[in-house]
Amino acid sequence: MSKTLEGKVALVTGASSGIGEATALCLAEAGATVAMSARRAERLAGLVEKIEALGGKALAIPGDMAVEADARRAVAETVAAFGRIDILVNSAGVMQAGGIENCDTETYRQVMDINLMGTVYTCAEAVPHMLEQGVGDIITISSLAGRKGGPMTSAYSASKHAVNFMTDGMRQELGGKNIRVCTLMPGATETEVGDSIKDPNWRTAIQKHVTKEGAVKPRDIGETLVFMLSMPRRTNISEITVRPTIDTSA
């Protein structure tokens, strides 16, 4: 991979596995210095070792993006360590089953706190630095679930729908100030997203969905993200979908 992001400083949330981990590696391979945050400190430490073994520079900042202080601290420590933040990738997220029958409102709250509010917290902390620099990129990893709902996906779909529209609102607010904002919506991608689902039937269904033949690999998303960031500043890829070739559903 060419060093198209040489000299850039990135923060990736949810970097301990899946799309976040692959994105951090792809950014490092493209020349960026990468700060990474997630709850699993030991996995972040291992990722720092991988990046440094490739000749890159990385920093682990353990934290929970559902906690505002942790999310803001991840941005603040990135800037303190490297002097700036050019790229913010909001990849932290959680999926839970959520319907209205026998509704567990705490499940809705948990999903919203991580998927939506975690994104709000990091953006609120990063944008002032980007405005001061006069440049920046924010990419939020959403989901095709943000475009449609289902009997067991209302909590997750609602959170991703909210993220999609909040992100596009930021694009309109910040584009004139040289801050590009984008929503990246993966389809079925081989990650651990289903492993923490509490409902056993839904957990099995999602695990099968993301490991089916032809599922997108996390690195595919990371490489797409690097492509987006490598475009000329005049070009803001405001929304992009990456789905399996064999998935022909709408």
UniProtKB/TrEMBL annotation:
Keyword Flavoprotein annotated: no
InterPro entries assigned to the protein according to its UniProt record, in alphabetical order: KR_dom (IPR057326), NAD(P)-bd_dom_sf (IPR036291), Sc_DH/Rdtase_CS (IPR020904), SDR_fam (IPR002347)
Record keywords, A-Z: Oxidoreductase
Keyword Cell membrane listed: no
Molecular function per GO: oxidoreductase activity
SUPFAM superfamilies membership: NAD(P)-binding Rossmann-fold domains (SSF51735)
Pfam families tied to this protein: adh_short (PF00106)
Residues annotated as domain Ketoreductase: 8-191
Catalytic activity, EC: 1.-.-.-
Family statement drawn from the similarity comment of this UniProt entry: Belongs to the short-chain dehydrogenases/reductases (SDR) family.
Name of this chain's protein: SDR family oxidoreductase
Higher taxonomy: Bacteria, Pseudomonadati, Pseudomonadota, Alphaproteobacteria, Sphingomonadales
